[in-house]
């Protein structure tokens, strides 16, 4: 398995994910006003976004000195390799949201939500491509596990960005408080195995957000609602 | 090599190739910190440097790319240990070859504000430490930059803390922009203006892809500026298994650069000593081509370069003179109001924005810095920093990202002595007013002579005529009728005889006369015909922009009338009636989220109603109805915000009315808002701000990533009885607690409300907050309970 970092510009999906974007705005049942607002702002986002990704496959033992946490270790069960990935929509999206925050707050909120949904869309498409490639080699890929999810530490994000050289390869960096900048970005760890694997969701038991989780309050989980 | 060979440009200077490539081939694991090798394995570095020097490289980059305090922070080693050791290794590797050694400075690996949380000043300080630690090098090379602002911080740090030559290089993507959107032109213009000793492009792409960018770069530079290229070995293979281009192909592709007038060649990722050997073999016998100097006058921001050619409109609205509402915004630090002025003028067709923040009772230098930073977050138009205060100008120039105009100098010796060195150092174009100790000369001849003197003095500072914008001064025609023509005569002579551009504040002509726009438009048209380049006008007046657009058509500056048609082609010949929607009552307009209609309705209502009555009897009840719906779940955040936007538009009208009355601002109390230190997500805080303002509170918004001390200072300065803090992440809630503690320790009697995605009522209580606000509506309820009843 090749262990050099791949970097690529990624395609924008044809359509925005309005349902997910509405959900990010706190609207759980789409209404015409929300739909109109989102549809009105999507073209500006599509113009600003320049999705780019970097990823690499490493033997799991190279992560042996990382603090993965129990949930991530379980996620990697039966895997030989880890795929580390970082994706970003680029700095122009943040700039658009900032500009709108001063002049068109509803627009800022709409673009913010659409962009969060777009990160997911781009990541899903990226993951599908990687899965197809690996399956061509007779290998299997788990789902994406994000640093900070379950009992894992957000600090993993620092290791991941350094390995992927994200600042140089895609203009993505971390703030000292471990936030990604540009903000509309994501990082993930996936397991690779030669037997079919799906990875394991962390579940709510260890989750740091379990007390305040909006999903739980609605009687569901992010595993059901957010990752479908 | 001798360093003067670099600036002589008589032969090609060969730079070295990839370092990471060589280290990985020697087994350096991914994600390891190559800088530590200077201490752990200097022999390996020496060997690589030696291979490059023997291959023919004249300039070797020490292995200091990531040796900044921030990147080394977690390694247990300091810049002062690593950098000198790395330079020693490079020196050792070049023994006997005659090659020189450069201190290599790469990006800090964190995004600068506003995209990230690193301030310009922190970036400068990081680079300063590296520069000081690298004083044993022969030159400084700042490379692989993708953010023009970070490049400026590094270049200033290098120039201010060392006398070594400084070369700068950025990395571009296939679209001709860096990751942060910086254009090739903006890079070249800014780097040259700031006094770089060489300008280049490196990394990211191969020679084939960089070639067109190198051509564009050469076109905006002085002819004697050395240009260098360090390309990657082509593009990386899609499967990540390395690079496409062989050493021989690389050499052949680089030979295509021969006619461009570059004078330095080397390699970046994927290149090895063999690449450099072939470059030396081919370029060693060639002479760099001559390059014509760019004679255009450029202004820029990172994303936009504006050539001052033909009529270039300068918007005049960011100026408190005679504007009560603007003065109020400055005193309150209300950046959003100022930003709004910028956005409106940009939409109306301004190409440059004049920025004047002078008021007798404010700290103008600090305000200039704050406003420049705020404006460049949202506008891509170059700024014209307008002040007579050298400190204010310097603060603005220092943090300005790109190439601005300084407005202004005049013929007085001491003014020129104070301001021209700043223009030179920060690379600004400069406005020269044709007046001096003796006042404004009454004749064109007198003004021309002052202009001539200013051009000479600018020349002594190395500022060429094309970057001097002479203002022959508009006098009021109602008071001195003959002066209008003197101004125009002087303007025409300066333009024709001095090689300068001309600028004129137009509106002053009509002071004291009725229907000022008619006179202004006529005077503007006459001035443009005489050669006015930069009219300073209110672009929001359709007649003024109309005159400019028409002039461009009639003088052939607008090819095929394209811009004119774009501006007016969609308009129906009959003036569109604006009144149809004016009949919607204010309350309804707010509830339906109709901005224009709300502003219009407010204007109408104010004809009969007191502004504060309008707020209390109409605006707030409408907002309450929307707020109730939100609470009950019958309407959602988007509609709440649209209603808030409409209320905001109405409120602007009310505030203007109140400012004119000279009374208060309908102040229902002061609230300080901030997104806490370390957190860069501030949309939630922005929503809260608008809602609070809609309820008539005066909000002092400190922005995001705000230091606890800043919050304390602002509370002490304003005496605000309520502070709102926002934090989105679990990692930044800690800063929230620190901010609350700082407020308590400083003895501030204010109450604190907190909110944000990860906040809970229990957690809020635990960190010492007085209130927990679940959403924007609840923050408004808390404020009303606390402040209105007090």
Write a structural description.
The complex is a heterodimer of chains A (228) and B (790). Chain A is of the alpha+beta class. Chain A has one domain (6-225): NADH Oxidase (3-Layer(aba) Sandwich). Chain A is built from 9 helices and 7 strands; from the N terminus they run E-H-H-E-H-E-H-H-E-H-H-E-E-E-H-H. Chain A has helices at residues 18-24, 32-48, 70-75, 91-103, 105-136, 156-164, 166-170, 214-217, 222-225; strands at 6-9, 52-59, 81-88, 140-141, 173-174, 180-181, 185-193. In chain A, strand 5 (173-174) and strand 6 form a beta hairpin. The mean pLDDT of chain A is 89. In chain B, helix 8 (148-161) packs parallel to helix 9 and helix 9 packs across helix 10 (207-219). Residues 573-582 of chain B have low confidence and may be disordered. Chain B is 47% helix and 13% strand. Chain B is globular and about 90 Å long. Among the domains of chain B are: 3-283, Homocysteine-binding-like domain (TIM Barrel, Alpha-Beta Barrel); 575-658, Orthogonal Bundle (Methyltransferase, Methionine Synthase (B12-binding Domains), Chain A, domain 1), CATH 1.10.1240; 667-790, 3-Layer(aba) Sandwich (Rossmann fold), CATH 3.40.50. Chain B has an 8-stranded parallel beta sheet. In chain B, helix 9 links the parallel strand 5 and strand 6. Chain B has 790 residues and is an alpha/beta fold. The chains are: A alpha+beta (228), B alpha/beta (790).
């Amino acid at each position: 398995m090749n262990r050099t970092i791949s970097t690529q510009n990624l395609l924008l999906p044809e359509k925005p994910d309005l349902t997910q974007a509405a959900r990010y705005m706190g609207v759980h049942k789409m209404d015409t006003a929300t739909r109109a607002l989102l549809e009105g702002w999507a073209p500006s986002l599509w113009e600003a976004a320049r999705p780019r990704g970097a990823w690499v496959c490493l033997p799991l033992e190279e992560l042996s000195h990382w603090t993965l946490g129990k949930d991530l270790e379980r996620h990697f069960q039966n895997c030989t390799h880890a795929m580390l990935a970082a994706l970003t929509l680029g700095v122009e999206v943040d700039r658009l949201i900032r500009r709108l925050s001063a002049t068109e707050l509803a627009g800022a909120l709409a673009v913010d939500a659409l962009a969060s949904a777009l990160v997911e869309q781009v990541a899903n498409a990226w993951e599908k491509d990687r899965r197809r490639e690996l399956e061509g080699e007779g290998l299997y890929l788990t789902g994406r596990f994000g640093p900070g999810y379950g009992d894992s530490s957000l600090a993993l994000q620092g290791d991941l960005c350094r390995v992927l050289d994200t600042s140089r390869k895609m203009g993505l960096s971390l703030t000292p408080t471990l936030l990604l900048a540009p903000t509309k970005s994501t990082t993930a760890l996936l397991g690779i195995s030669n037997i079919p694997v799906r990875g394991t969701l962390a579940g709510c038991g260890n989750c740091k957000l379990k007390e305040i989780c909006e999903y739980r309050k609605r009687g569901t989980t992010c595993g059901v609602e957010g990752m479908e | 090599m001798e360093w003067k060979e670099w600036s002589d440009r008589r032969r090609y200077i060969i730079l070295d190739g990839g370092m990471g490539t060589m280290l990985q081939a020697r087994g350096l694991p991914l994600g390891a910190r190559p800088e530590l090798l200077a201490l752990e394995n200097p022999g390996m570095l020496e060997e690589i440097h030696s291979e490059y020097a023997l291959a023919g490289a004249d300039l070797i980059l020490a292995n200091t790319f990531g040796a900044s305090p921030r990147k080394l922070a977690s390694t247990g080693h300091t810049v002062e240990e690593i950098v000198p050791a790395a330079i020693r290794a490079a020196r050792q590797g070049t023994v006997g070859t005659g090659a020189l050694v450069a201190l290599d400075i790469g990006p800090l690996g964190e995004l600068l504000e506003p995209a990230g949380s690193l301030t310009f000043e922190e970036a400068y300080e990081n680079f300063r430490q590296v520069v000081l630690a690298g004083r044993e090098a022969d030159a400084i090379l700042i490379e692989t930059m993708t953010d023009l602002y970070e490049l400026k911080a590094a270049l200033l740090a290098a120039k201010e803390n060392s006398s070594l030559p400084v070369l700068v290089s950025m990395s571009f993507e296939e679209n001709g922009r860096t990751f942060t959107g910086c254009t090739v032109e903006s890079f070249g213009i800014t780097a040259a203006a700031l006094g770089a000793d060489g300008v280049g492009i490196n990394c990211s792409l191969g020679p084939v892809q960089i070639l067109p960018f190198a051509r564009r770069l050469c076109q905006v530079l002085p002819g004697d500026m050395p240009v260098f290229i360090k390309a990657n070995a082509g593009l990386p293979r899609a499967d990540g298994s390395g690079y496409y281009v062989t050493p021989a192909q690389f050499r052949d592709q680089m030979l295509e650069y021969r006619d461009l007038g570059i004078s330095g060649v080397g390699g970046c990722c994927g290149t090895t000593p063999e690449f450099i050997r072939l470059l030396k073999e081919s370029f060693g016998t060639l002479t760099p081509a001559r390059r014509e100097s760019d004679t255009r006058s450029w202004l820029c921001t990172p994303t936009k370069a504006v050539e001052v050619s033909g009529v270039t409109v300068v918007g005049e609205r960011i100026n408190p003179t005679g504007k009560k509402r603007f003065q109020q915004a400055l005193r309150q630090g209300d950046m959003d109001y100022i930003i709004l002025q910028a956005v409106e003028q940009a939409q109306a067709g301004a190409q440059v924005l004049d920025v004047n923040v002078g008021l007798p009772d404010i700290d103008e230098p600090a305000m200039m810095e704050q406003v420049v930073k705020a404006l460049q977050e949202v506008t891509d138009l170059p700024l014209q920093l307008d002040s007579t205060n050298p400190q204010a100008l310097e603060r603005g120039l220092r943090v300005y990202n790109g190439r601005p105009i300084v407005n202004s100098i005049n013929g007085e010796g001491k003014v020129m002595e104070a301001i021209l060195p700043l223009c030179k150092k920060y690379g600004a174009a400069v406005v020269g007013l044709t007046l001096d100790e003796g006042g404004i000369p009454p004749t064109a001849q007198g003004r021309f002579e002052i202009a001539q003197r200013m051009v000479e003095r600018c020349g002594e500072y190395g500022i060429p005529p094309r970057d001097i914008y002479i203002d022959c001064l508009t006098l009021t025609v109602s008071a001195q009728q003959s002066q209008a023509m003197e101004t125009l005569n002087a303007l025409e002579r300066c333009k024709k005889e001095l090689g300068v551009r001309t600028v004129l504040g137009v509106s002053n002509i009509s002071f004291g006369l009725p229907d000022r726009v008619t006179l202004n438009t006529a005077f503007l048209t006459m001035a443009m015909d005489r050669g006015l380049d930069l009219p300073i006008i209110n672009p929001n007046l359709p007649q003024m922009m109309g005159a400019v657009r028409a002039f461009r058509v009639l003088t052939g500056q607008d090819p095929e009338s394209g811009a004119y048609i774009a501006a007016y082609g969609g308009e129906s010949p009959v003036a569109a009636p604006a009144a149809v929607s004016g009949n919607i009552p204010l309350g309804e307009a707010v509830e339906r989220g109709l901005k224009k209609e709300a502003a219009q309705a407010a204007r109408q209502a104010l004809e009969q109603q007191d502004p504060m009555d309008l707020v209390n009897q109409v605006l707030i009840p409408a907002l309450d109805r929307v707020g109730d719906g939100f609470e009950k779940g019958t309407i959602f955040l988007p509609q709440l915000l649209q209603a808030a936007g409409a209320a905001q538009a109405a409120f602007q009208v009310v505030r203007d009315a109140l400012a004119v009355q000279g009374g208060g601002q309908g102040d229902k109390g002061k609230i300080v808002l901030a997104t806490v230190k370390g957190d860069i997500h501030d949309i939630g805080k922005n929503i809260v701000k608008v809602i609070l303002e809609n309820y008539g509170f005066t909000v002092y918004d400190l922005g995001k990533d705000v230091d606890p001390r800043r919050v304390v200072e602002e509370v002490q300065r304003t005496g605000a009885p309520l502070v709102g803090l926002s934090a989105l992440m679990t990692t930044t809630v800690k800063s929230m607690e620190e901010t609350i503690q700082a407020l308590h320790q400083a003895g501030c009697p204010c109450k604190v409300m907190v909110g944000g995605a990860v906040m809970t009522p229990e957690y809020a209580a635990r960190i010492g907050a007085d209130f927990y606000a679940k959403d924007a509506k609840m923050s408004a309820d808390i404020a009303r309970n606390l402040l209105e009843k007090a």
